[in-house]
Specification:
The strands form 2 sheets. The chain has a 7-stranded parallel β-sheet with strand order 3-2-1-4-5-6-11, sandwiched between helices. It contains 16 helices and 11 strands. Strand 9 and strand 10 form a beta hairpin. It is 38% helix and 16% strand. It folds into 2 domains: 296 residues, 3-Layer(aba) Sandwich (Rossmann fold); 108 residues, 2-Layer Sandwich (Dihydrodipicolinate Reductase, domain 2).
């Protein structure tokens, strides 16, 4: 990655737009406002609470990340988005049920001021939802142009200097790359012809990249992970990243699996099941949408454990993932894992994990960090896939000739080393005792 512009303190307002104004995005928006008002702490956010070691340990230089790299200030952020329902952010947050009533009531006027723009939506891509607040157009290209108008007008109306878009909407049905995705010319032709292999999320990505707006994909959809849109990202020099926020069960896998491999502990099987009752759970109750999520969740262990390098330990492990829609649980997802491992002389052992997590509470700080880091990347001239942001994703985008890095700790090292590189500091390596971290 080449730094084309010296990183400096950003000027003006940053608009963060989210396709989807449901549980994740309203939890994010409400959280940032509560933090700005001093009512809460930004727990879980690397940009706000993380530190970074510089130089030798003996130098005792460990600034906060937000003091080390020039990120947008929380007070300079403006929020907006699109949704298939007309509810403002307060109404949407109340229905999502993630945050306590007293939390959102304390910032009610702020949340009520955030009203969604009409969404680009087609029910055949998200079969369990039916939206009423939806754009109409003669084809995909017409809808993309409407989105570009939304982005331009939002920026002007809110006096924003820059925009970032983070996909927070539902998981679409499983789509494989096809001819229409292979080049920008083919994609634009397909938009005019309403090609069925083009999904609504791709229209948002196309609109954003056409205007030079960074785009992060928080769902496992194909979206920007196609040659056509990567061509557009490089053409317009726009940074992108994705896909699928790493929150509950997969977060645990990327913590535990690297430990097994580090200690050369074998794996016979890993059975994972989830119950959740939010809109995400309802969408994933459809087999075609679940297929998209399943592909994202299943790839993690294969890449971390590298069975081709360690066939005696990981060549034949069995991996099963289940997601069950259970309305009473709401956003408070529960993930159960049964892990069958083996150690010295092949003796079997088991680990049981019961993670009662809050999906949107884990996702909200990810949205903030991605928006701030993508804005930084854009300001210094980074373009294309930002692999250093893989830390935040279940199924990280990567260059075609590479495999994705899933190990959470390697991902964090890459992220922090990129920040050191941006600011002209030595990268931390294992070479020499003075650099060992």
């Amino acid at each position: 990655m080449e730094i084309k512009k010296k990183p400096g303190k950003p000027q003006g307002k940053l608009g963060i737009l989210t396709p989807g104004m449901g549980a994740v995005s309203t939890t994010f928006m409400a959280g940032v406002e509560a933090i700005r008002k001093g009512q809460a702490k930004p727990i879980g956010s690397l940009t706000q609470m993380g530190t970074i070691r510089l130089g030798k340990r003996t130098e005792n230089r460990t600034p906060m990340v937000k003091d080390f790299v020039p990120l947008a200030d929380l007070d300079d952020i403006v929020f907006g988005g699109w949704d298939i329902f007309e509810d403002n952010a307060y109404q949407a947050a109340a229905k999502a049920g993630v945050l306590h009533k007293e939390t959102i009531d304390a910032i009610k006027p702020f949340l009520e001021s955030i009203k969604p723009m009409k969404a680009v939506f087609d029910q055949k891509y998200v079969k369990k939802l039916s939206g009423s607040w939806v754009k109409k157009g003669k084809n995909w290209l017409d809808l993309a142009e409407q989105l570009m108008t939304d982005m331009t007008e939002f920026k002007k109306k809110n006096d924003c200097d820059r925009l970032v878009i983070v996909w927070c909407a539902s998981t679409e049905i499983f789509i494989k790359p096809s001819d229409v995705h292979m080049s920008l010319d083919a994609f634009e032709k397909g938009m005019k012809e309403n090609d069925p292999n083009i999904a609504p999320s791709m229209i948002y990505a196309y609109a954003a990249l056409s205007l030079g707006i960074p785009f992060a994909n928080g769902a496992p959809n194909l979206t920007v992970d196609i040659p056509a849109l990567m061509e557009l990202a490089h053409k317009n020099e726009v940074p992108v990243c994705g896909k699928d926020f790493k929150t509950g069960q997969t977060l645990m896998k990327t913590i535990l699996a690297p430990g097994f491999k580090a200690r050369l502990i074998g794996l016979n099987g890993w059975f994972s099941t989830n119950i959740l009752g939010n809109r995400d759970g309802e969408v994933l109750d459809d087999p075609e949408s679940f297929k998209t999520k399943e592909e994202s969740k299943l790839s993690v262990l294969e890449h971390i454990l590298q069975p081709k390098l360690y066939p005696e330990l990981y060549d034949k492990f069995y991996h099963k993932v289940r997601i069950n829609y259970y309305p009473p649980r709401g956003d408070n997802k529960e993930g159960w894992d049964n892990i069958d491992i083996f150690g010295w002389l092949g003796y079997p052992m088991q680990i049981k994990v019961d993670f009662l997590c809050r999906d949107s509470i884990l996702a909200a700080p990810i949205v903030l960090d991605l928006a701030l880091f993508l804005d930084l990347a854009s300001r210094i001239g980074f373009k294309g896939i930002q692999e250093w942001l893989s830390f935040y994703f279940k199924s990280p985008q990567h260059a075609p000739e590479l495999y994705p890095e899933h190990d959470l700790f390697i991902q964090l090292m890459k992220l922090k080393n990129t920040l050191r590189y941006i600011q002209g500091e030595d990268m931390i390596t294992h070479l020499g005792q003075e650099y060992y971290d």
